[in-house]
Amino acid sequence: MGFALTDKKVPYLELIDFLRGLSWESDEVPVLANQIFEIILSSRNPVLIRDC
């Protein structure tokens, strides 16, 4: 199972590797949780295309 990025499926481990590579704005857990939520939400919404 994976996340749909446009028409392509992305495995969870690939998404985790992508998340690890990002520069985060804060070390606070609530802020990080919101950033991760937004990334996952946008990866599941074909209208919001992330430039990877």
Task: Tell me what the structure shows.
With 52 residues, this protein is an alpha+beta fold. The chain has one domain (1-51). Helices cover 48% and strands 15% of the residues. The protein has 2 helices and 2 strands, in the order ββαα. The chain has helices at residues 12-20, 29-44, and strands at 2-5, 8-11. The chain starts with a strand and ends in an 8-residue tail after the last helix. The model has no long low-confidence stretch (mean pLDDT 67). It comes from Xenorhabdus bovienii str. puntauvense. This is Transposase.
What count of structural domains? 1
Q: Helix/strand-derived class?
A: alpha+beta
Strand order of the largest sheet: 1-2
Biggest sheet architecture: 2 strands, antiparallel
Mean pLDDT: 67
- Shape field: globular
Order of helices and strands: EEHH
Please indicate the percent range of residues in DSSP E strands (runs of 2 or more). Answer: 15-25%
Poorly predicted parts: none
**How many helix segments?**
2
Number of strands: 2
How far is it from the N-terminal to the C-terminal residue, by CA?
Answer: 20 Å
Protein name: Transposase
Organism: Xenorhabdus bovienii str. puntauvense
